[in-house]
């Protein structure tokens, strides 16, 4: 336990955040280096721009870039062709940009978590090659040699495929990184709300869950009786705001011989086109294997003019439906819509284009998709560690996008995405800010500062809940919701040493030979405690099992 230093501003430094992801779009205004000073002399990295050398340029903001995968270095490029890495990099360290929006929605002046930090890009994913454990490990090795201070990884294995530390490239690469003073921040996974679905749960990793923010993307339904039903989603619908369009429950358009469950869920080839044509269709999203995009496509193909999807979980995330009128509503509001449909001979409605009101309450809540604890590997570590904004996050985007581009428009400069992938870089940016303020602090001290200053209440001064309204627990948000300024002045921080982690691996069941594979260095003379051996533990269990109730 060490005291934080209130006067450490005088010793501040430029922190360097390494982003392991899909690359970066360097031309984005979010990575402008006009306000940046000289590149730190301690930086040892390179700008390996490969075949893109004529257009991909590093600067005083993006001070390094590497690409991994098949082929020679000159045949590769760290340019982001998927968008994910650019979005993540901006969230962590983008500079301040005014009038940021997604086609006019959610217009704000925005910046990343640590706008004064430098970025080092390690492209370990590509649309052609995906990602492999060997490329992830190579990126870790390069990042250590390059001299980064924080590593941000917005990916991980599926909770169904989580591996032992010795077989997990992220856990393997993170251990020597932490030994070299690098704070490693990872996303907790998107397999929630199932208990025990959290990944990246090694104790030397700072694991981040996702929470909502106080801005929503609202697309309301107006019924013929003038009742307004609140919905969520992003659509730029060009239909009338007055409720003049016929509305129907999908179940009423069932094809002969088709299962009713398939029809009410708007599944492909389940609805009668003559009944659907020209109508707004209300679809369930219960016990269905088809995602919402398939339901949208099916109704659109049949000539429907809009979709109202009933789903209590998904409605917390603003899915992008482009120019098609579609919105998500709760089951409670769904019952009101169906009641209206059944109450009149000619029910009508409309779906309003999206607005983005702020100051939404309650916020934060824990996102339905955010993977929860307890950890399964290992079972005795509480994960996730912290929660951060990960729902409907607006951040920089790639300049050659086609998927998220509205018809007849230029590609968006900024885009809205959700996931623990978006939560992770918020914490990475804060970790970099803490490192800048306290250059001598270890990764565990930085993690301590972030966790011990977290909050457990929302903007209504009530306990944070899940999106379903139930009380959130440490299995949902770890220590709580991260705050931006508290970690800079935590008062006290708690230290975990390399010996603590080595002893943990011993008690996890690893022998010295296995630990040497994982660790960068092991102190001379280090041995596992006798009581950590499997034989000793089994012996103690056999002794302690001979008890009786009295």
UniProtKB/TrEMBL annotation:
GO MF term set: serine-type endopeptidase activity
- Highest taxon above the source species: Eukaryota
Q: Name one GO biological process term.
A: proteolysis
InterPro entries the record matches:
Peptidase_S8/S53_dom (IPR000209), Peptidase_S8/S53_dom_sf (IPR036852), Peptidase_S8_Ser-AS (IPR023828), Peptidase_S8_subtilisin-rel (IPR015500), Peptidases_S8_3 (IPR034197), SBT (IPR045051)
Q: Which SUPFAM superfamilies match?
A: Subtilisin-like (SSF52743)
The answer to whether UniProt assigns keyword Cell wall biogenesis/degradation to this entry is no
Q: Which part of the chain is the Peptidase S8/S53 domain?
A: 15-480
Q: Which UniProt keywords apply?
A: Hydrolase, Protease, Serine protease, Signal
Name the Pfam families for this protein: Peptidase_S8
The active site lies at 21 (charge relay system), 84 (charge relay system), 421 (charge relay system)
PANTHER family assigned? PROPROTEIN CONVERTASE SUBTILISIN/KEXIN (PTHR10795)
Which family is annotated? Answer: Belongs to the peptidase S8 family.
Q: What is this protein called?
A: Peptidase S8/S53 domain-containing protein
Q: What species was this sequence derived from? A: Gossypium mustelinum
Organism placement in taxonomy: Eukaryota, Viridiplantae, Streptophyta, Embryophyta, Tracheophyta
